[in-house]
Amino acid sequence: MTTRTPPGAPDTMSSTASTAADGTRPRPPAGWSGPLYAGIGMALVGSQVAVSGVLADAPLFAVQAIRYTLAALVLLVVLRCTGRSVPAPRGREWAWLAGVALTGLVLFNVGVVRGVAHAEPAVIGVAVAAVPILLALVGPLLGRTRPTSMVVVAAVVVTLGAVLVTGGGRSDAVGLGYALLTLLCEAGFTLLAVPVLRRLGPHGVSLHAVWIAAVALWALSLAVEGPGAALTLRAEHVPATLHLALSVTVVAFLLWYTAVGRIGPGRAGLFTGVVPVASAVGSVLLGGPVPGPVVWLGVGVVVAGVVLGSQPAGRGSPRGVTPRTGIPLPGA
C-alpha cells in the first residue's frame, strides 16, 4: 500500500530519513520540553529555601561570589566535555550580558537583603510574584511581536496565586522601593538575555553572566565585608553553597534559558510562579509547619494559570501556520 503526501504538505518521512542520514539528533518537541524545562528550573530556584537558613549568618556577598565562581568553572568543564563552543560576545552583547549579571544576579541580591530591613519578607515576595505580568507584556515586544492576551491573563492569574502563597506584609517607603528594585531585577534576568540568546545560546548566556556577576560580587564582598569574609565560612556552609552553585545556578540557568528560547519569555515567565510554590513545599519537607488553606488555594491558582497560559499558541491561525513564540537558538 502506497501513501501519497498531499500537495504543499511537508514530507515527514523523507525529512526524518535525511535527518538520520546527516547523523544529527532531532530536537525534543518544543511543545513539552520548553514548559518542562521552565518548571524544573524554577522549582530548583525555589529549592533555595533548603539552604537559606543555613546561610543566614554567612557573609552574603562572599557566598554569592563563591557560588558564581564555582558555577562558571563547572559550566566551562561541561562545555569542554560536551565539545560545545561558546561564541565570544561582541559589541553591544557585552552590555546586554552585563545587564543580566548586574541586575538579575547582583542588584537582585542587594535589593532582597536591604529590602527585608525595611519590609517584611512577604512584601519582597509579592513584588517578585508580579514578574510573570511584566514578562508577558514586555517579552514579546523584544521579539517584535505583540503580547498574547491569553498569556497576559494567565500571568495575572499566576501572580494572584503567588501572592496568596507568599502572603502580605508591612513596609515603609524605602522597603517598597527595594521591592520595586527586586521586581525589575528579576525581570531583567530574562528580558535582557533575549537579544543575545539567539546567537550565544543558553550555555553562552549562562557562562558569561555568571563570571561577570562573580567579578562584581567579589568586588562588593571586599568593599563591604572585608578581604577575609570568605574565610569565615564554616563547614555547614559548604554543601549549601555547592547546592546554590550547581543546582540553583548551573542546572536551573541552563534549563531556564533553554525554555525561554523554545517558548518565549512571556510563556516561560508563567513558571516563575513555581518558585514560591516550590519554596512552600520544600519548607514542609524540611519539617516546617504545614501551610494553611490560603496557601494551598494559591498553589492551585498558580497551577491553573500555568495551564491556561501553556495552551498551544495560534489555535485561530490559518491551517498549516504555526506561530513561533520562541527564539531560534544556535543549532535550531
Folded structure, characterized:
The chain has one domain (about 55-310). The protein is about 70% helix and about 0% strand. It contains 13 helices and no strands. The model is unreliable at about 1-30 and about 315-325 (pLDDT under 50).
Protein topology:
Layout: H1 12-22, H2 30-46, H3 49-52, H4 60-82, H5 93-115, H6 121-129, H7 131-142, H8 149-166, H9 173-191, H10 194-225, H11 237-269, H12 274-285, H13 293-309
Which percent range describes the beta-strand content? under 5%
- Average pLDDT over all residues: 82
The count of helical stretches stands at 13
**Which sequence of SSEs, written as H and E, runs from N to C?**
HHHHHHHHHHHHH
Number of self-contained structural domains: 1
The secondary structure category is mainly alpha
Oligomer, anyone? single chain
Basic shape: globular
List segments where confidence is low: pLDDT < 50 over at least 5 consecutive residues.
1-28, 315-325
For the record, give the distance between the C-alpha atoms at the N and C termini, rounded to a whole number: 35 Å
Rg from Cα? 21 Å
Share of helix, binned: 55-70%
